[in-house]
Amino acid sequence: MTKKSLKLNSVLLTAKEAAKSSGEILREMWKTSSFEVVQTTAHDVKLSADLKSEKNIIEIINKKFPEDKVLAEESGGKKKNEKGLWVIDPLDGTVNFSHGHPHFCISIAWQLAGETLVGVIYDPVRDELFSAVKGRGAFCNNKKISVSKIYEIGGAMITTGFGAYLLESDSADELKKLSKTAQKIRISGSAALDLVYVASGRVDAYIESQIFLWDIAAGALIVEEAGGVCWLTEKENGAYYSCVATNNLVDC
User: Fold this and answer.
1) Of the residues 88, 117, 144, which one is the last residue of a structural domain?
2) Does the residue 34 lie in any domain?
3) Distance between CA atoms of 5 and 198, rounded to whole angstroms?
4) Cα–Cα dist 174/237, whole Å
5) 10-residue block means of pLDDT along the chain (252 residues)?
6) Residue-number span of the structural domain to which 228 is assigned
7) CA distance 16 to 27
């Protein structure tokens, strides 16, 4: 086994450990509503749960990979590092979480020179751990997963995100057109789970015109390793991305 393979194995194990550990924290806080609202905006909310989860993840990573850098939703960070960059969303689906809605997750990706090589997404409510290492396939709870075989847009279920910005962009018109041709459009409130649902064949495509890297980095790799495709386009110098992920059959 090469040094690179050994490194990727270690990264994967660390990402899984961090995701499961923070998943236990989030699950307990969600069940007992033992969290505080830190900040409220027009269409979003920040919780003490986000902060606690991120702190726990970073502590676990720093013990194993002290030279790596971190880009995380709450604490920020740098985008590229030659030794390794961890891209973290400690709680994707925060608004869902705050309402007691059981649809949220933890997303952890590891990049080298801007390329995502490891991705892990954990849903603590359903106890589903999705993972991928570049070139090795995609898995849910260690069972291999693959995208759907739906090829006609009329039979496809498509997920998307809907923010205030959408109303002021061309994407609103695109979404309206798509809603007339697709079988169903769904809005789940978690981009990371949308992507692994594409990877596991539960939905056929995911589209969002303005999303952060930490929301999609891990999921994009998992989709591709499951046989799908994921197009990411940088916007505003990398502040946001547009994302289109499909089963590689549906044209949207």
Assistant:
1) 144
2) yes
3) 27
4) 23
5) 85 98 95 73 67 95 95 71 87 93 97 95 98 98 97 94 59 74 93 98 94 96 98 82 95 81
6) 153-246
7) 16
